[in-house]
Design brief:
This protein is an all-alpha fold. It contains 5 helices and no strands. Helix 4 (49-57) packs antiparallel against helix 5 (69-80). The longest helix has 12 residues, at 69-80.
Length: 90
């Protein structure tokens, strides 16, 4: 996981994390019969953040491509900074 020195300040779900999930990722994870992850719900993403991080870091999520290292690091930073939700865009 990224160290605090590698992290930009003020990482939030709405500003930084939600844009990492494509709409197709959100739909796919909402349609999983067991173990749904609501990627469009900051509370659900925060509750399952360690699992999500492990999957994206291993290249297992999303299923059709690997996240760039910078995106995986940004997600780790969000976890380390307390999983701040921030303000939902209008």
């Amino acid at each position: 996981m990224a160290t605090i020195d590698d992290c930009p300040p003020g990482v939030t779900y709405w500003k930084d994390i939600r844009p990492l999930f494509r709409d197709s990722d959100v739909k796919a994870m909402n349609d999983v019969p067991a173990g749904k992850v609501h990627l469009d719900d900051p509370a659900d993403v925060a509750a399952k953040a360690d699992l999500i991080h492990a999957l994206v870091a291993a290249g297992k999520m999303p299923c059709d491509h690997k996240w760039p290292d910078d995106s995986v690091r940004l997600f780790a930073c969000w976890i380390q900074q307390g999983k701040v939700v921030g303000t939902k865009p209008a």
